[in-house]
Design a protein that fits this description.
Structural class: alpha/beta
Distance between the termini: 73 Å
Largest sheet: 7 strands, mixed
Oligomer: single chain
Shape: globular
Number of domains: 2
Helix content: 25-40%
CATH architecture of the largest domain: 3-Layer(aba) Sandwich
């Protein structure tokens, strides 16, 4: 039944918030009676208007002083921090992160805008003498044009921030399409960007169906580049559309990340890393430690401590201060998680600890973390991205076997190792076939000023974040001058 008392939200196009004919209820995964709002289901017409507004705004914005762009991003960063408590509560309600986790994500979004405020002023080029006498050569960077930004539900403010902030900093205009499950955080960010003085049309927000609006945005002839984070299947389609249109595409896709527990590891550190990486944020992170690879000599001691700690984690409402693990994002994702767990239980050699539904004080999607032993490395749970609080534990004969298992995946986002050996830590950094490596740290948790991205089927195109973001959001021009 539709809650007509819930506030309605439209699309932001050309500096104006526009109402829509249809809306979708945004329901909290912690309490299905909590309707956060009714958000616009945009159609192709609204998307066309947003792209047109971005194209009209691009010439002026691209020629704006870097200081103007830097000042806007700095104001946005300051505003996010000043509104952090309200934004964190909103994010926790709609996505299910605990309040503390949501506060951390909001703070990270502010830091990303602040970093790229500086990057707007630090964009450099090259000036050289030509091989021809009297001729100079200048190589500089220019914006791409209109960037289509398509973001997932698991980081509803941080990922829009780390895509939109560099796009704006380098003089591009933006059409943002957030995941249909989490429009509220994106709408709150859009309102901040608008209220802090972003010129009309420079930043546009279109909410609605991924199958309709996301696909159309990826294929729109008025879009000059697309940056996407989400599922591999959708990413492949976006890559194909980009190849057909000969436009730049940046993709961050799946992960099946390994954490190796070495036989010389500090087991207290290893357990803490595994718990954080596998289960915090309800395991709904592309960087989650979904495969825990434990060397035989410490297997029993580690797994005993790991599963005991996992089963003590308090599962509940995201806004409850005692909650350590919030709800799964929606009923569909919960079915996926339970499907993998039930598949493991059906296997004769598997042992499943936890993985049962938790009854809360509200009607939410609460799932106890699951630790699964005994499955082979080729089992679906150890091969496919589950995207929930589910960790498979694999036994390794020795260090070389552990590295072999860690690399035995079509994905290559991040991997970690817990070890007290500097030599082993250095060796794993070289041998890990991933874009990121963690040593005595959870696989989830990255800094905003360095590159983010993976290898193999995890990522495609230039890396995100840090100074390397300019590799995607700008294009090179070489100029030859004879006075």
């Amino acid at each position: 039944m539709t809650d007509t008392s819930a506030p309605e939200f439209g699309t932001l196009i050309g500096g104006e918030w526009r109402s829509a004919a249809e809306h979708r209820e945004n329901i909290s995964p912690s309490d299905r009676s909590d309707v956060i709002g009714r958000f616009a289901i945009a159609g192709i017409g609204e998307l066309d208007l947003a792209v047109e507004a971005a194209r009209e705004a691009f010439p002026r914005w691209s020629r704006t002083s870097p200081a103007v762009r830097a000042d806007l991003l700095e104001r946005v960063a300051a505003r996010i921090l000043s509104d952090a408590d309200a934004l964190a509560e909103l994010l926790a309600r709609e996505e299910g992160k605990t309040r503390n986790e949501a506060r951390g994500e909001v703070t990270r979004a502010a830091h990303i805008f602040r970093f790229f405020a500086g990057e707007a002023l630090r964009l450099t080029g090259d000036h050289q003498d030509s091989v021809r006498p009297g001729v100079t050569v200048t190589v500089h960077r220019e914006p791409l044009g209109v960037v289509g930004v398509i973001t997932p539900w698991n980081f509803p403010i941080a990922i829009p921030a780390w895509k939109c902030a560099p796009a704006l900093a380098y003089g591009n205009t933006v059409v943002l399409k957030p995941a249909a499950l989490v429009p509220a955080s994106a709408a709150a960010l859009a309102r901040i960007i608008e209220e802090e003085g972003c010129p009309p049309g420079v930043f546009n927000l279109v909410t609605g169906s991924g199958a309709l609006i996301g696909d159309a945005l990826a294929r729109h002839e008025g879009i000059d580049a697309v940056t996407f984070t989400g599922s591999e299947s959708v990413g492949v389609g976006i890559a194909q559309a980009g190849a057909t249109a000969l436009r730049p595409v940046q993709l961050e896709l799946g992960g099946k990340n390994a954490l190796i527990v070495s036989d010389d590891a500090d087991l207290d550190i290893a357990v803490a890393c595994a718990i954080d990486g596998a289960f915090f944020a309800t395991g709904q992170r592309c960087t989650a430690s979904s495969r825990i690879i434990v060397m035989d000599a410490v297997y029993e001691r580690f797994v005993t401590a790991f599963r005991e700690r996992a089963l003590r984690l308090r599962v509940g409402h995201a806004l409850d201060p005692d909650t350590e693990i919030g709800p799964v994002v929606d009923a569909g994702q919960l079915r996926i998680d339970l499907g993998y767990i039930d598949g493991a239980r059906a296997h004769a050699d598997a042992i499943v600890h936890g993985g049962d539904l938790v009854e809360g004080s509200t009607a939410g999607h609460f799932l106890r973390p699951a630790v699964v032993e005994g499955l082979s490395a080729s089992a679906p749970l150890n091969r496919e991205e589950v995207f929930g609080p589910v960790a498979g534990v694999l036994r390794a004969e020795d260090y070389d076997h552990a590295v072999e298992l860690a690399n035995d995946t079509p994905y290559g986002l991040v991997a970690g190792i817990c070890t007290t050996s500097l030599a082993r830590a250095a060796d794993f950094q070289r041998r890990s076939d991933t874009g990121m490596v963690m040593v005595n740290l959870p696989t989830a948790g990255v800094d905003p000023h360095v590159p983010f991205g993976g290898r193999k089927r995890s990522s495609h195109g230039p890396k995100e974040q840090g100074t390397h973001a300019r590799e995607f959001f700008t294009q090179l021009k070489t100029a030859y001058v004879r006075p």
